[in-house]
Design a protein that fits this description.
about 85% helix
Length: about 150
């Protein structure tokens, strides 16, 4: 016997066992007990084998597609989470930067002279302008005029 003939006989035997198990299961589900199952002829076994091979191929391709889609979805989800994490970190950094800028501005406002000091400076500026505009007046005359 050649190797190909041995493989063919083994394949037919597998198909016959499959047929026996399938028919036995169907008979029990339908309530028939003790029924003798006729073995398949070579042609029917070959056809059953081809059918099983086709169904197995479809099942494997479908399962592979499901697995690949699951992996793709997981990678997409990880990428989306990384983008959200990066955006969150950028916002947190921006808030920290704005908090430092706010503290600096508050320090500048507190260091600025009070409003009364600004009024005194304006008054002095007006006095200096008056002295520059009226060079003939003495300093003693310019001061009382500005306080009016």
């Amino acid at each position: 016997m050649t190797d190909s003939r041995v493989c063919m006989d083994l394949h037919l035997h597998q198909q016959m066992v499959y047929h026996w198990v399938e028919m036995r299961t169907k008979m029990r589900i339908m309530g028939f007990r003790g029924t003798v199952i006729k073995p398949l002829n070579e042609e029917a076994a070959a056809e059953l084998g081809a059918e099983l091979l086709g169904e197995a191929t479809i099942f494997i391709v479908g399962g592979g597609c499901l697995v690949l889609e699951y992996w793709r979805h997981q990678a997409q989800q990880r990428h989306k989470e990384e983008e959200q994490r990066a955006a969150w970190n950028a916002l947190r950094d921006e808030v920290g930067h704005l908090a430092l800028a706010l503290e600096a501005l508050q320090a500048q406002v507190q260091a600025a002279p009070p409003q009364g000091a600004l009024e005194e400076l304006r008054t002095e500026l007006q006095e200096v302008r008056a002295q520059l505009c009226n060079p003939g007046q003495s300093a003693s005359q310019a001061v009382p005029a500005s306080k009016k």
